Structure formats: structure tokens, C-alpha cells
Amino acid sequence: MVAVSERGNETGRVPCVKVLEPGWNTVRVLGVCAGMGPVLTCPWGICIDTDGNVLVADWGEQHRILLYPAQGVGWPIITQGLSSPRGLSLLPDGQLAVSDSMHHCIKIYQYKASQD
User: Fold this and answer.
1) N or C terminus of the chain: which is more exposed, having fewer CB within 10 Å?
2) CATH superfamily, domain at 2-110
3) How far apart are CA 18 and CA 61, in angstroms?
């Protein structure tokens, strides 16, 4: 799978993340409906874990990291301590690296795909 972000523009497009399957068909559109999780304001960094969960750095208004599970409704997993998160990477040891552009650093968080 591949995920791409659309940050929206003046022509009325809504910020979202599109998840594409190998034939380039869109299989999911994330961040546009509050009933399916947080609405995105400015998605930037994206990564997909081995279970198909999509993580999104949303740096627009709320400076947060969101998790959209492969099945079900998404939720914020990091909501404090970031200022303009731009890039995401899942590390081999299970941690999540987040580039924090306004703090000029990379922050490392323990990652787990549950609400425990």
C-alpha cells in the first residue's frame, strides 16, 4: 500500500490522506469525516505500519500525530509537545521518529497501535 497526502488548496479540495493499493486504486480516504476519526487540517508526514495502520503528522492547527487503524475509527496519539510535525518514520525497534520542524529536532516516541 501507498499513502499520499493532499493538503487542499484554493479550489476547494479538502485536506486528506489517500491510501492506494498496488493498482493505484484508492481504497481509503482519511481525515475528511469526523465520524471516521479526526479531520485533518494540514497532513504532511505519513507512514504505514505492518498492520496497515496509517500514521499522519497533521501540522496545521493542532500540531499532532494521528493514527487511523486499518479497521475502525482513528484517534490522536500525540497531541502535545510538537510544533509543526512534518515527517514520520517507524524504527525497527518499534519506536516512532517525528521531525518537529519548529523545534528543529527529531523526537522519538514509543509506538503501539492501541488505545491502552
Assistant:
1) C
2) TolB, C-terminal domain (2.120.10.30)
3) 20
Q: What are phi and psi of 78, to 5 degrees?
A: -135, 120
Prediction pTM value: 0.86
- pLDDT tens, residue order, the chain (116 aa): 898 888 766 556 788 899 999 999 999 999 888 888 899 999 999 999 999 999 999 988 889 999 999 998 999 999 999 999 999 999 999 999 999 999 999 999 999 744 44
CA distance 51 to 29: 17
